[in-house]
Model the fold of this input.
Amino acid sequence: MSRTSRAITLAAALALSSIAADAAGAPSPGRPQTPGDRTQAVLATACAGHDKWADPAPPARIFGNTWYVGTCGISAILVTGAKGHILIDGGVAKAAPLVLANIRKAGFDPKQVRWIVASHEHFDHVGALAALQRETGAKVAALPAQKAVFETGKPSKEDPQGAGLDSIAPVKIDRVLKDGATVVVGSLVITAHATPVHAPGSTSWTWRSCASTSDCHSIAYADSTSTISSDGYRFTDHPDRVAAIRQGLPKIAALPCDILLTPHPSQSAMMERFAGTKPLTDTSACRTYVTAAEDRFAARLQKEAKEAR
Ligand SMILES: [Zn+2]
Done:
């Protein structure tokens, strides 16, 4: 073991022991954010040079009652409350035990997760959901376009990436959501926004988190804005898909968004922001995220038009 990796391991162990001490000393849900919470820095350090989908990561408090419980390469977000918790995304199938362990390490009981929801119906974000549903006993809520994929486990034919996606273990849907619907656990309220840019069922989630009564932020877990496809797929042949993307992007730009979180941490420099080299809070983050995506999508359509000539 190198000196650096020993230092990282030590830092991670210290941070986890302080999380455990916090959890033992106070009722964990909604306990105040302590100044000098080092968990984000520890997560960023542990994931430096590791961004694979199943690379284990320590949990970190993002803000107030909002926790990162995913792997280095794929987000899983836990929003905690006194009456139970909400989990957003679970990562690849292999990540299920890592996410469960992170919920525990953060000081919470997986059996207190009441609802599980998702960003989009691709195996890298929801491959773990069936196992997480089984282990937590939580209910699962989804928009109609996600429901079909969850229940069959098969990628959607409407999905530009459909031909190249792995199947998932089927997930039972307990509640079908409409755009704008809320999922509520006690005083926790998270809102579903249909943002069908990356996949037909793409959903962005927003909520308020407070570190104290006067220090609150709007958090947006905005779905992926990448408009990639399997080989041979042309967006130009699918005007409905193009229209859905054009409708979804401005919705993401307009989300209440003091802190932007994304299903792939790299899509919004989450690890850099956890490391403190970029600001965690940026009220223009969702707009910036969308502007870059609009440019990429315009370039893609242009390329298709050129190839068709
Ligand atoms: Zn993905």
